[in-house]
Amino acid sequence: MSTTQDHIVRGFKATLVSRAIYMVSSALLMFVLARFLLDPDGYGTLYWVIGILAVVQLLADVGLGKSTARYISEYNEKDPGQIPYLLRTTIAYKLIVISVVGSTLFLFHEEIAALLGDTSAAPFLAVGVIYIVVNSFNGFSQIAFQGFNKLGYSAAIQAISGVARLVFVIALVLAGFGALGALFGYIVGYTIAAAVGITILYERFYRQYEPADEYESGLSRRLLEYSVPLTATRSANVIDKQIDTVLVGVFLTPAAVAFYTLGKQITDFVLAPAEALGFTISPNFGEQKAADQLEQAREIYETSLVQTMLLYIPAAVGLILVAEPFITMIFGGDYAGSVPVLQILAGFIVLQAITNLTSDSLDYLGRARSRAIAKGGTSIANFGLNILLIPLIGVIGAAIATVITHTVYVAVNLYIVHSELSLRLESLGRSIAMICGITGVMAVAVLLVTPLVSNLFMLFAAVGLGGFTWAVLAVVSGLVDPNEVRAVIT
C-alpha cells in the first residue's frame, strides 16, 4: 500500500470501530427503549423532541466546525502557527452564538411547544438548552480532530458518547423518569464526550503549536465566510434528516413518529461503514488538491465508490425482503407500522451511502458553495413534499419525499465530483452493472427461503444465506480480492 492508502486504511479502521461501538450502542438503546421501556407514544415523543432540538442545534453550530477543520487541514501544512488563533477564534464565535440561541430557546420554549401543537413538549425543550450546548462541543471536537487528520481521536470521542448515552438513558428511564429521563441521559452522555474531546484538543493539539507572531490578516474573515455555505449545507442536512420527523409529529401522532423514527434509525445503523469511510477519506482530498495530485484523489474516490456500492446495493435489497419479519420479531408487533417505512427508506440507504462518501470530500475540494446550493434546493423541495404527502398518505409520505429529493441531490453531487476529478464513467458503469447482477442472484436466494421464516433463527439463517451468496459472487467476479481484505484486516 502507498503511504496515503495506508493512512486511509488506518483511519478507516479506527473510525469504523468507533462507528461500530456507537451504532451498536445506539441499536441496543433503540431495542431496549422500544421493546421494553417505552410504548410507541413515549418513544415517538422522545425522538420528536430530539428532532426539534436538532433543528435548533444547527442555529447554534452554524458551519464553524467544518470551516475550522478545513482551515486546520490547510494551515497544518503551510503555516501551523496560525492554528492556535483559528481554535481560539472558533471557540469565541461558538460561545457567542450558543448563548444567543440557548437563551432564546429557554425564554420561548413554552411558545414554541404551543406553536408545534403539543404543550407537553415544553419541559423537554427547556431541558434541551443543555442538550444543545453539550452536543455542540461534542460534535466540534470530533470535527476538529478530522481537520488534523487524527481520526483515532474523533473515533474515541464518538464511541464514548455512544456508550455513555446508552448507560445513562437506560438508567434514568429505569429510575422512573420516562421519556424526559431519556433526554437527560442523552445530555449526560454528550457532556462526558464533550469534556473528554475538548480536553484532548487543548492538551494534545492547541498547546503543542507555537503561535505565529501575528494572526494572518483576513483569516478570521475567511473562516466566517467559508462557514456560510457550510451553514447552508448543514441546515439543509438537518431539514432532510429531522424536519420530516418534526412534521410527522405535527400532522400525525406520536406513534407515527415512532414508526418513522425506528425506520430511520435502522437505516442509520446500516449506513455506519459508509459514514466512516467518507469521514476518513475526505481530508485527503484537500491535501491532494493542494499538492496537485488529482489522479490519486480520483483513484481513491472511484475505488471507495465501487466498494461502497458493492456493500449497499445488496444490503438495501436484502432489507426490503426481510423488513416485515425483522421488525415484528425484533421490536414487536406494536411497531409493524415501521415496515413500509423501512422498505421505502432502503432506497435512501444507497443514496445516503453515496452522500456519506461524497459530501465531506467536496468541502475539502473547495466546492462547499456548489454543494450548499444543491442541498438547499433539494431540502426546500423535501420540506414541500413532506407537507404535501404526509397529510395525504401518512407516514410513508415522509419516506417517499426523502427518497425523491435525495436522488436529485446525489446526482448533482456526482456531477460536481466528476467536474473536479474527471471520473472514468465507463469503468464505473461496468462495475455497478456487475454489482446489480450479484444483487439479483442474492435476492433470488433470499426470496426462496423467506416464506420459511417463522422465528429469529430462521430470520438470521435467511440473512446469512444472502450474505454468503453475495460474498461468493463478489469474490468470483473479481470485485473483492480476498488477499486485499486480509491485508486490510491485519
Word description of this protein:
With 490 residues, the protein is an all-alpha fold. Helix content is 87%, strand content 0%. 50% of the residues are buried.
List the helices and strands and how they pair.
Elements: H1 3-37, H2 40-61, H3 64-78, H4 83-107, H5 109-115, H6 122-147, H7 151-205, H8 219-251, H9 254-270, H10 272-290, H11 294-330, H12 338-364, H13 368-393, H14 395-421, H15 425-449, H16 456-476, H17 482-489
Helix pairs in contact: 1-7, 1-9, 1-10, 2-4, 2-6, 2-7, 2-8, 2-9, 3-4, 3-6, 3-8, 3-10, 4-6, 5-6, 6-7, 8-9, 8-13, 8-14, 9-12, 9-14, 10-11, 10-12, 11-12, 11-15, 11-16, 12-14, 13-14, 15-16
Give the key terms:
single chain, 17 helices, 490 residues, mainly alpha, globular, 87% helix
From the alpha carbons, calculate the radius of gyration and give it in angstroms: 22 Å
Average predicted local confidence, pLDDT: 87
Distance between the termini: 13 Å
**Given the structure, what is the number of helices?**
17
Largest sheet: none
Identify the overall geometry: globular
Low-confidence parts lasting 5 or more residues at pLDDT below 50? none
Give the SSE string. HHHHHHHHHHHHHHHHH
